[in-house]
What does this fold into?
Amino acid sequence: MSDETVRMQRHPTDDLPAFALGALDAAEAREVETHVARCDTCAREVAAHREALFDVAALAATREPPAGLRTKIVLRERGARGVGTATWTTALRSLLARPVPLVVPVALVALLVIAFAVVGQTRRDADAYARALAGVAEGRVVALAATPDAPDARGALVIPPQGSPYLVLRLPAPPSGKTWEAWVLRGQAAIPAGTADANGVFTVVLSAPFAPGDGAAVSLENAPGVDKPTKVVLAVQKT
Amino acid sequence: MRLIERIAAGDAEALGELYDRYGRVAFGVLFRMVASPEAAEEVTQDAFHSVWRQARSYRAERGSVRTWLLAICRNAAIDWRRTKGKRLERETMIDAAFDLTAEGRVDERVLARLRAERVREAIAGLPAEQRDVLGLAFWGGYSQREIAARTGTPLGTVKSRVRLAMAKLRERLAELDEDGGTRGRSPRDT
It folds into this structure.
Protein backbone atom coordinates (compact mmCIF):
# COMPACT_ATOMS: atom_id res chain seq x y z
CA MET A 1 0.00 0.00 0.00
CA SER A 2 1.52 3.35 -1.02
CA ASP A 3 2.04 6.29 1.34
CA GLU A 4 -0.46 8.23 -0.72
CA THR A 5 -3.13 5.54 -0.27
CA VAL A 6 -2.51 5.45 3.47
CA ARG A 7 -2.74 9.24 3.65
CA MET A 8 -6.08 9.22 1.89
CA GLN A 9 -7.51 6.39 3.95
CA ARG A 10 -6.59 7.91 7.30
CA HIS A 11 -8.84 10.90 7.87
CA PRO A 12 -7.09 13.61 9.93
CA THR A 13 -10.32 14.22 11.85
CA ASP A 14 -8.64 15.47 15.02
CA ASP A 15 -6.67 18.07 13.11
CA LEU A 16 -9.57 19.47 11.10
CA PRO A 17 -10.73 22.06 13.69
CA ALA A 18 -7.19 23.44 13.98
CA PHE A 19 -6.83 23.37 10.21
CA ALA A 20 -10.02 25.41 9.82
CA LEU A 21 -8.69 27.83 12.43
CA GLY A 22 -5.35 28.12 10.65
CA ALA A 23 -3.65 26.88 13.83
CA LEU A 24 -1.59 24.03 12.41
CA ASP A 25 2.10 24.36 11.71
CA ALA A 26 2.93 24.81 8.05
CA ALA A 27 3.96 21.19 7.46
CA GLU A 28 0.90 19.80 9.23
CA ALA A 29 -1.35 22.19 7.37
CA ARG A 30 0.08 21.13 4.02
CA GLU A 31 -0.55 17.48 4.81
CA VAL A 32 -4.13 18.09 5.91
CA GLU A 33 -4.73 20.36 2.93
CA THR A 34 -3.58 17.63 0.56
CA HIS A 35 -6.02 15.22 2.14
CA VAL A 36 -8.92 17.67 2.28
CA ALA A 37 -8.46 18.59 -1.37
CA ARG A 38 -9.32 15.01 -2.28
CA CYS A 39 -11.66 13.94 0.50
CA ASP A 40 -15.23 15.22 0.36
CA THR A 41 -16.01 14.02 3.88
CA CYS A 42 -13.22 16.01 5.47
CA ALA A 43 -13.84 18.97 3.16
CA ARG A 44 -17.44 19.15 4.41
CA GLU A 45 -16.22 19.00 7.98
CA VAL A 46 -13.75 21.84 7.43
CA ALA A 47 -16.46 23.89 5.70
CA ALA A 48 -18.76 23.41 8.71
CA HIS A 49 -16.01 24.54 11.11
CA ARG A 50 -15.41 27.60 8.97
CA GLU A 51 -19.09 28.53 8.95
CA ALA A 52 -19.05 28.48 12.75
CA LEU A 53 -15.95 30.68 12.72
CA PHE A 54 -17.66 33.14 10.41
CA ASP A 55 -20.31 33.63 13.08
CA VAL A 56 -17.52 34.45 15.52
CA ALA A 57 -15.95 36.81 12.98
CA ALA A 58 -19.24 38.61 12.45
CA LEU A 59 -19.18 39.69 16.09
CA ALA A 60 -16.24 41.91 15.23
CA ALA A 61 -18.23 43.90 12.69
CA THR A 62 -18.90 46.72 15.11
CA ARG A 63 -16.85 49.38 13.39
CA GLU A 64 -17.81 51.21 10.21
CA PRO A 65 -15.13 50.81 7.52
CA PRO A 66 -13.61 54.08 6.30
CA ALA A 67 -15.65 56.01 3.74
CA GLY A 68 -14.19 55.49 0.31
CA LEU A 69 -12.66 52.07 1.04
CA ARG A 70 -15.09 50.35 -1.31
CA THR A 71 -14.24 52.78 -4.08
CA LYS A 72 -10.51 52.23 -3.58
CA ILE A 73 -10.99 48.47 -3.78
CA VAL A 74 -13.06 48.67 -6.97
CA LEU A 75 -10.90 51.29 -8.66
CA ARG A 76 -7.75 49.29 -8.00
CA GLU A 77 -9.06 46.44 -10.13
CA ARG A 78 -10.95 48.37 -12.78
CA GLY A 79 -9.40 47.56 -16.12
CA ALA A 80 -6.66 45.58 -14.40
CA ARG A 81 -7.56 42.21 -15.84
CA GLY A 82 -6.87 41.84 -19.53
CA VAL A 83 -5.36 38.80 -21.09
CA GLY A 84 -4.28 36.19 -18.53
CA THR A 85 -0.68 36.46 -17.42
CA ALA A 86 0.36 33.04 -18.66
CA THR A 87 -1.08 33.71 -22.10
CA TRP A 88 0.49 37.15 -22.24
CA THR A 89 3.96 36.00 -21.22
CA THR A 90 3.78 33.03 -23.56
CA ALA A 91 2.83 35.29 -26.44
CA LEU A 92 5.62 37.74 -25.60
CA ARG A 93 8.20 34.96 -25.39
CA SER A 94 7.04 33.63 -28.73
CA LEU A 95 7.21 37.08 -30.29
CA LEU A 96 10.73 37.73 -29.02
CA ALA A 97 11.92 34.39 -30.33
CA ARG A 98 11.15 35.37 -33.90
CA PRO A 99 13.85 36.94 -36.11
CA VAL A 100 12.88 40.54 -36.93
CA PRO A 101 14.27 43.20 -39.25
CA LEU A 102 16.09 46.13 -37.60
CA VAL A 103 13.28 48.54 -38.38
CA VAL A 104 10.95 46.73 -36.00
CA PRO A 105 12.93 47.32 -32.77
CA VAL A 106 13.49 50.94 -33.82
CA ALA A 107 9.77 51.38 -34.34
CA LEU A 108 9.11 49.67 -31.01
CA VAL A 109 11.41 52.08 -29.20
CA ALA A 110 9.61 55.04 -30.79
CA LEU A 111 6.29 53.51 -29.85
CA LEU A 112 7.45 52.98 -26.28
CA VAL A 113 8.46 56.64 -25.93
CA ILE A 114 5.02 57.73 -27.11
CA ALA A 115 3.32 55.10 -24.95
CA PHE A 116 5.19 56.23 -21.82
CA ALA A 117 4.04 59.79 -22.40
CA VAL A 118 0.43 58.70 -22.88
CA VAL A 119 0.55 56.26 -19.97
CA GLY A 120 2.08 58.97 -17.79
CA GLN A 121 -0.83 61.31 -18.45
CA THR A 122 -3.36 58.47 -18.01
CA ARG A 123 -1.73 57.51 -14.73
CA ARG A 124 -1.84 61.10 -13.50
CA ASP A 125 -5.54 61.26 -14.39
CA ALA A 126 -6.16 57.94 -12.64
CA ASP A 127 -4.36 59.19 -9.54
CA ALA A 128 -6.32 62.45 -9.59
CA TYR A 129 -9.56 60.50 -9.94
CA ALA A 130 -8.70 58.19 -7.05
CA ARG A 131 -7.71 61.18 -4.91
CA ALA A 132 -10.98 62.94 -5.76
CA LEU A 133 -12.99 59.95 -4.58
CA ALA A 134 -10.81 59.28 -1.58
CA GLY A 135 -11.44 62.89 -0.56
CA VAL A 136 -15.17 62.32 -0.28
CA ALA A 137 -15.60 62.72 3.45
CA GLU A 138 -19.28 61.92 3.82
CA GLY A 139 -21.99 60.38 1.72
CA ARG A 140 -22.38 57.41 -0.49
CA VAL A 141 -20.20 56.71 -3.50
CA VAL A 142 -21.63 54.55 -6.27
CA ALA A 143 -19.40 53.53 -9.16
CA LEU A 144 -20.76 53.90 -12.70
CA ALA A 145 -19.99 51.10 -15.11
CA ALA A 146 -18.21 51.97 -18.35
CA THR A 147 -19.89 50.80 -21.54
CA PRO A 148 -18.02 49.11 -24.40
CA ASP A 149 -18.17 52.44 -26.27
CA ALA A 150 -15.80 53.97 -23.72
CA PRO A 151 -14.02 51.24 -21.78
CA ASP A 152 -11.50 53.69 -20.29
CA ALA A 153 -14.14 56.06 -18.93
CA ARG A 154 -14.47 56.23 -15.16
CA GLY A 155 -17.22 57.73 -13.10
CA ALA A 156 -18.78 57.66 -9.68
CA LEU A 157 -21.92 59.19 -8.29
CA VAL A 158 -21.48 60.87 -4.92
CA ILE A 159 -24.64 61.23 -2.85
CA PRO A 160 -23.82 63.55 0.06
CA PRO A 161 -25.97 63.59 3.21
CA GLN A 162 -27.03 67.12 2.26
CA GLY A 163 -26.99 69.00 -1.02
CA SER A 164 -27.11 67.84 -4.62
CA PRO A 165 -25.55 64.59 -5.75
CA TYR A 166 -22.68 64.99 -8.18
CA LEU A 167 -20.63 62.93 -10.57
CA VAL A 168 -16.87 62.57 -10.37
CA LEU A 169 -15.76 61.75 -13.90
CA ARG A 170 -12.60 60.84 -15.71
CA LEU A 171 -13.23 61.27 -19.41
CA PRO A 172 -11.28 62.29 -22.49
CA ALA A 173 -12.11 65.52 -24.29
CA PRO A 174 -15.36 65.11 -26.22
CA PRO A 175 -14.91 65.07 -30.00
CA SER A 176 -15.19 68.46 -31.69
CA GLY A 177 -18.74 69.78 -31.62
CA LYS A 178 -19.91 67.22 -29.04
CA THR A 179 -20.51 67.39 -25.32
CA TRP A 180 -20.79 65.13 -22.28
CA GLU A 181 -24.27 65.07 -20.77
CA ALA A 182 -25.31 63.76 -17.35
CA TRP A 183 -28.65 62.02 -16.78
CA VAL A 184 -30.75 60.91 -13.84
CA LEU A 185 -32.29 57.50 -14.56
CA ARG A 186 -35.68 56.84 -13.03
CA GLY A 187 -37.33 53.61 -14.12
CA GLN A 188 -37.38 53.73 -17.91
CA ALA A 189 -37.04 57.52 -18.01
CA ALA A 190 -33.82 59.51 -18.45
CA ILE A 191 -33.88 63.09 -17.18
CA PRO A 192 -31.21 65.54 -18.45
CA ALA A 193 -29.04 66.70 -15.54
CA GLY A 194 -26.31 68.92 -16.95
CA THR A 195 -23.60 69.07 -19.61
CA ALA A 196 -19.83 69.51 -19.61
CA ASP A 197 -17.19 69.97 -22.29
CA ALA A 198 -14.37 69.24 -19.86
CA ASN A 199 -11.81 66.46 -19.98
CA GLY A 200 -9.54 64.72 -17.51
CA VAL A 201 -10.96 64.53 -14.00
CA PHE A 202 -13.92 66.81 -13.35
CA THR A 203 -17.24 66.93 -11.55
CA VAL A 204 -20.80 67.58 -12.69
CA VAL A 205 -23.41 68.52 -10.11
CA LEU A 206 -26.71 66.93 -11.10
CA SER A 207 -29.14 69.68 -12.01
CA ALA A 208 -32.18 67.37 -12.03
CA PRO A 209 -33.86 66.20 -8.81
CA PHE A 210 -32.39 62.92 -7.60
CA ALA A 211 -34.46 60.48 -5.53
CA PRO A 212 -33.26 57.46 -3.54
CA GLY A 213 -32.95 54.49 -5.88
CA ASP A 214 -32.49 56.60 -9.02
CA GLY A 215 -29.66 55.74 -11.37
CA ALA A 216 -27.30 58.01 -13.26
CA ALA A 217 -25.59 58.01 -16.63
CA VAL A 218 -23.26 60.04 -18.80
CA SER A 219 -23.62 60.16 -22.56
CA LEU A 220 -21.91 61.77 -25.52
CA GLU A 221 -24.24 64.14 -27.35
CA ASN A 222 -24.04 66.31 -30.45
CA ALA A 223 -25.77 69.08 -28.53
CA PRO A 224 -27.55 69.53 -25.22
CA GLY A 225 -31.33 69.38 -25.20
CA VAL A 226 -31.94 65.91 -26.63
CA ASP A 227 -34.81 63.89 -25.17
CA LYS A 228 -32.84 60.78 -24.34
CA PRO A 229 -29.20 59.70 -24.18
CA THR A 230 -27.64 58.98 -27.58
CA LYS A 231 -24.37 57.25 -26.76
CA VAL A 232 -24.09 56.23 -23.11
CA VAL A 233 -20.51 55.90 -21.84
CA LEU A 234 -21.11 55.43 -18.11
CA ALA A 235 -24.15 54.26 -16.19
CA VAL A 236 -25.55 52.80 -13.02
CA GLN A 237 -29.17 51.75 -13.33
CA LYS A 238 -30.10 52.00 -9.64
CA THR A 239 -28.49 53.23 -6.47
CA MET B 1 -23.99 34.57 -13.12
CA ARG B 2 -22.92 34.23 -9.48
CA LEU B 3 -20.99 37.01 -7.85
CA ILE B 4 -17.73 35.12 -7.59
CA GLU B 5 -17.96 34.09 -11.23
CA ARG B 6 -18.41 37.72 -12.22
CA ILE B 7 -15.32 38.62 -10.19
CA ALA B 8 -13.38 35.81 -11.85
CA ALA B 9 -14.52 37.18 -15.22
CA GLY B 10 -12.99 40.56 -14.38
CA ASP B 11 -16.07 42.49 -13.24
CA ALA B 12 -14.69 44.99 -10.71
CA GLU B 13 -18.17 46.15 -9.71
CA ALA B 14 -18.92 42.58 -8.61
CA LEU B 15 -15.96 42.89 -6.25
CA GLY B 16 -17.64 46.02 -4.91
CA GLU B 17 -20.83 44.04 -4.35
CA LEU B 18 -18.87 41.41 -2.43
CA TYR B 19 -17.49 44.24 -0.34
CA ASP B 20 -21.04 45.52 0.23
CA ARG B 21 -21.96 42.12 1.70
CA TYR B 22 -18.90 41.31 3.72
CA GLY B 23 -16.68 44.39 3.83
CA ARG B 24 -17.89 45.31 7.28
CA VAL B 25 -17.08 41.89 8.71
CA ALA B 26 -13.75 41.82 6.88
CA PHE B 27 -12.76 45.24 8.15
CA GLY B 28 -13.97 44.40 11.67
CA VAL B 29 -11.91 41.21 11.80
CA LEU B 30 -8.86 42.90 10.38
CA PHE B 31 -9.14 45.83 12.72
CA ARG B 32 -9.05 43.38 15.60
CA MET B 33 -6.12 41.50 14.14
CA VAL B 34 -3.88 44.41 13.19
CA ALA B 35 -5.06 46.86 15.86
CA SER B 36 -5.09 50.13 13.92
CA PRO B 37 -7.68 51.56 11.52
CA GLU B 38 -5.02 52.58 9.00
CA ALA B 39 -3.46 49.11 8.93
CA ALA B 40 -6.90 47.47 8.80
CA GLU B 41 -7.80 49.57 5.77
CA GLU B 42 -4.56 48.63 4.05
CA VAL B 43 -4.97 44.93 4.78
CA THR B 44 -8.65 44.98 3.73
CA GLN B 45 -7.57 46.34 0.37
CA ASP B 46 -4.88 43.66 0.11
CA ALA B 47 -7.39 40.94 1.01
CA PHE B 48 -9.89 42.03 -1.64
CA HIS B 49 -7.05 42.27 -4.13
CA SER B 50 -6.27 38.63 -3.30
CA VAL B 51 -9.93 37.75 -3.84
CA TRP B 52 -9.71 39.44 -7.24
CA ARG B 53 -6.60 37.48 -8.18
CA GLN B 54 -7.74 34.14 -6.77
CA ALA B 55 -11.42 34.19 -7.73
CA ARG B 56 -10.84 31.66 -10.48
CA SER B 57 -9.50 29.16 -7.97
CA TYR B 58 -12.56 29.36 -5.69
CA ARG B 59 -14.41 26.03 -5.44
CA ALA B 60 -17.97 26.20 -4.15
CA GLU B 61 -17.93 22.57 -3.09
CA ARG B 62 -15.14 23.41 -0.60
CA GLY B 63 -17.09 26.05 1.29
CA SER B 64 -19.00 29.29 1.00
CA VAL B 65 -17.59 32.48 -0.43
CA ARG B 66 -17.81 34.23 2.90
CA THR B 67 -15.68 31.66 4.72
CA TRP B 68 -13.23 31.69 1.82
CA LEU B 69 -13.03 35.46 2.10
CA LEU B 70 -12.58 35.24 5.86
CA ALA B 71 -9.66 32.83 5.44
CA ILE B 72 -8.06 35.22 2.93
CA CYS B 73 -8.53 38.14 5.35
CA ARG B 74 -6.98 36.29 8.26
CA ASN B 75 -4.03 35.14 6.15
CA ALA B 76 -3.53 38.71 4.93
CA ALA B 77 -3.52 39.97 8.52
CA ILE B 78 -1.04 37.32 9.63
CA ASP B 79 1.23 38.15 6.69
CA TRP B 80 0.96 41.85 7.45
CA ARG B 81 1.91 41.33 11.06
CA ARG B 82 4.88 39.19 10.14
CA THR B 83 6.24 41.87 7.85
CA LYS B 84 5.03 45.13 9.37
CA GLY B 85 3.23 44.53 12.61
CA LYS B 86 4.75 45.34 15.91
CA ARG B 87 4.81 42.75 18.61
CA LEU B 88 3.29 45.20 21.06
CA GLU B 89 0.28 45.73 18.83
CA ARG B 90 -0.20 42.00 18.63
CA GLU B 91 -0.20 41.58 22.39
CA THR B 92 -2.61 44.46 22.90
CA MET B 93 -4.89 43.18 20.22
CA ILE B 94 -5.14 39.70 21.69
CA ASP B 95 -5.99 41.03 25.11
CA ALA B 96 -8.72 43.14 23.53
CA ALA B 97 -10.02 40.17 21.56
CA PHE B 98 -10.97 38.39 24.74
CA ASP B 99 -13.31 41.22 25.55
CA LEU B 100 -15.32 40.42 22.47
CA THR B 101 -17.87 38.38 24.33
CA ALA B 102 -18.73 41.38 26.45
CA GLU B 103 -18.93 43.84 23.61
CA GLY B 104 -21.91 45.96 22.63
CA ARG B 105 -24.33 45.85 19.80
CA VAL B 106 -23.49 44.27 16.46
CA ASP B 107 -24.91 46.00 13.43
CA GLU B 108 -28.05 44.30 12.23
CA ARG B 109 -26.98 44.50 8.62
CA VAL B 110 -24.31 41.94 9.34
CA LEU B 111 -25.96 39.63 11.76
CA ALA B 112 -29.35 39.78 13.38
CA ARG B 113 -28.93 41.08 16.88
CA LEU B 114 -30.54 38.05 18.39
CA ARG B 115 -28.16 35.72 16.65
CA ALA B 116 -25.18 37.86 17.63
CA GLU B 117 -26.26 37.66 21.24
CA ARG B 118 -26.64 33.92 21.04
CA VAL B 119 -23.28 33.47 19.31
CA ARG B 120 -21.73 35.58 22.03
CA GLU B 121 -23.43 33.41 24.63
CA ALA B 122 -22.12 30.29 22.91
CA ILE B 123 -18.56 31.60 23.14
CA ALA B 124 -19.01 32.80 26.70
CA GLY B 125 -20.33 29.37 27.61
CA LEU B 126 -17.09 27.66 26.68
CA PRO B 127 -14.74 26.78 29.53
CA ALA B 128 -12.25 29.62 29.98
CA GLU B 129 -9.24 27.58 28.88
CA GLN B 130 -11.02 26.58 25.65
CA ARG B 131 -12.16 30.12 24.98
CA ASP B 132 -8.60 31.33 25.48
CA VAL B 133 -7.04 28.97 22.95
CA LEU B 134 -9.79 29.81 20.50
CA GLY B 135 -9.08 33.53 20.92
CA LEU B 136 -5.34 33.09 20.59
CA ALA B 137 -5.72 31.03 17.44
CA PHE B 138 -8.50 32.99 15.77
CA TRP B 139 -7.70 36.60 16.63
CA GLY B 140 -4.05 36.17 17.45
CA GLY B 141 -3.22 33.97 14.48
CA TYR B 142 -1.09 31.75 16.69
CA SER B 143 -0.50 28.11 15.85
CA GLN B 144 -1.24 25.43 18.43
CA ARG B 145 2.49 25.02 19.00
CA GLU B 146 2.92 28.76 19.57
CA ILE B 147 -0.01 28.77 21.99
CA ALA B 148 1.55 25.91 23.90
CA ALA B 149 4.85 27.79 24.19
CA ARG B 150 3.15 31.07 25.06
CA THR B 151 0.95 29.64 27.78
CA GLY B 152 3.30 26.96 29.05
CA THR B 153 0.72 24.29 28.34
CA PRO B 154 1.57 20.88 26.86
CA LEU B 155 0.94 20.81 23.10
CA GLY B 156 -1.39 17.81 23.43
CA THR B 157 -3.53 19.75 25.90
CA VAL B 158 -3.74 22.74 23.57
CA LYS B 159 -4.79 20.47 20.73
CA SER B 160 -7.51 18.91 22.87
CA ARG B 161 -8.78 22.33 23.90
CA VAL B 162 -8.94 23.54 20.31
CA ARG B 163 -10.81 20.40 19.27
CA LEU B 164 -13.27 20.60 22.15
CA ALA B 165 -13.81 24.34 21.75
CA MET B 166 -14.66 24.00 18.08
CA ALA B 167 -16.92 21.01 18.70
CA LYS B 168 -18.86 22.82 21.44
CA LEU B 169 -19.08 26.00 19.44
CA ARG B 170 -20.52 24.17 16.46
CA GLU B 171 -22.88 22.22 18.65
CA ARG B 172 -24.25 25.37 20.28
CA LEU B 173 -24.55 27.20 16.98
CA ALA B 174 -26.39 24.21 15.53
CA GLU B 175 -28.83 24.34 18.46
CA LEU B 176 -29.26 28.01 17.72
CA ASP B 177 -30.12 27.25 14.09
CA GLU B 178 -32.61 24.60 15.18
CA ASP B 179 -34.22 27.13 17.51
CA GLY B 180 -34.74 29.44 14.57
CA GLY B 181 -31.87 31.82 15.18
CA THR B 182 -31.36 34.09 12.21
CA ARG B 183 -28.37 33.64 10.01
CA GLY B 184 -27.20 36.74 8.22
CA ARG B 185 -27.17 34.93 4.90
CA SER B 186 -27.25 31.45 3.62
CA PRO B 187 -23.75 29.96 3.66
CA ARG B 188 -23.69 29.60 -0.09
CA ASP B 189 -25.44 32.77 -1.01
CA THR B 190 -22.93 33.98 -3.50
About this structure: Chain B has two domains: 1-85, 86-190. The radius of gyration of chain B is 17 Å. Confidence is low (pLDDT under 50) at residues 87-111, 184-190 of chain B. Chain B is about 70% helix and 0% strand.
